[in-house]
Amino acid sequence: MPIPKAELHLHIEGTLEPELAFELAARNGVRLPYADTEELRKAYLFDDLQSFLDLYYSLMAVLRTEDDFEALAEAYLARAAAQGVRHAEIFFDPQAHTARGVSIGTVVEGLGRALDRSRERHGISTRLILCFLRDQSAESALATLDAARPYLHRIVGIGLDSAEVGHPPAKFREVYAVASALGLRKVAHAGEEGPPSYITEALDVLGVERIDHGLRALEDPELVARLVRDRVPLTLCPLSNVRLRAVDVLEAHPLGRMMDAGLMCTVNSDDPAYFGGYVDDTFLAVRAALGLSESRLRELARNSFLAAFLDDEEGLRERYLAEVEAYEFGTG
Ligand code: HPA
Ligand code: ZN
Fold this sequence. Notes:
Layout: E1 5-11, H1 18-28, H2 37-42, H3 49-59, H4 66-82, E2 85-92, H5 94-98, H6 104-116, H7 118-122, E3 125-133, H8 138-147, E4 157-161, H9 173-181, E5 185-190, H10 196-206, E6 210-213, H11 221-229, E7 233-236, H12 238-243, H13 255-260, E8 264-267, H14 272-275, H15 279-290, H16 294-306, H17 316-326
Helix pairs in contact: 4-6, 8-9, 16-17
The structure holds hypoxanthine (HPA) and zinc ion.
The site of zinc ion has 6 residues, from β1.
């Protein structure tokens, strides 16, 4: 049995497995430029973030209806349950869909159908986080937040993703301020490929509560001291970092050093259909590659619930934390 955990950095579009992509393509009459799933899988060799994003956005062409988004979320939740996930905070990229003529209502209502029955069916509580594409304009982000207004009861917060370098957090100062006034929680990708100064800027200018990735934090000792002091959670994604070549090999990943430095780390899967594993696969991989102790693995699981946006649900965080403390590691 995998250790109970929350997944806090998961792009629902990044859970689109080749089999489901072909099924939805057939259903919607969309032609994919790959003969079959095997040929598609062969395209999953990335040089960097952008080379992944190109494929990630192009495959989204198969997602058209509420049924499609429901099927996508349902497939993820079933896999997540088997990986010990008890709570999932799920990113979605509305601009990647509205640009193709799919409305934000179709996306949110479709995902919502699967999320609404998730606790009952999979034992997983859920949240939705709306992400802005940082390589699009600030005006487009504002228009997206505006279009999301009828669905805000389903959305806990906002995030910032897509191509990082050249698109610093401050570009989105205004939309984060508007979201804050609406009572939304705030996170942002920072320090994945971009410099540690983007992490500082996300904290100072956007007022984010968690940093997604934060991989490059160790390059700035002053920033590390601040992140440790303020217990700012980092949602690291080690398998993603290897596949997108932010680190050479998993053995060289800074996760262990970051935990030793006192940073509040969590481990997540990012885009598991593309990066070779879901979240417990990631726990097992870092355990093997970095030699993490059981106490470090328990710390990662504990941190995931401590960093979750669970405040409004009476007792849930405490219940999950008790499950983490009671967990017994097996031998296999
Ligand atoms: N980084 C930035 N944008 C993304 C990612 C990522 O890892 N996955 C999906 N969109
Ligand atoms: Zn991500």
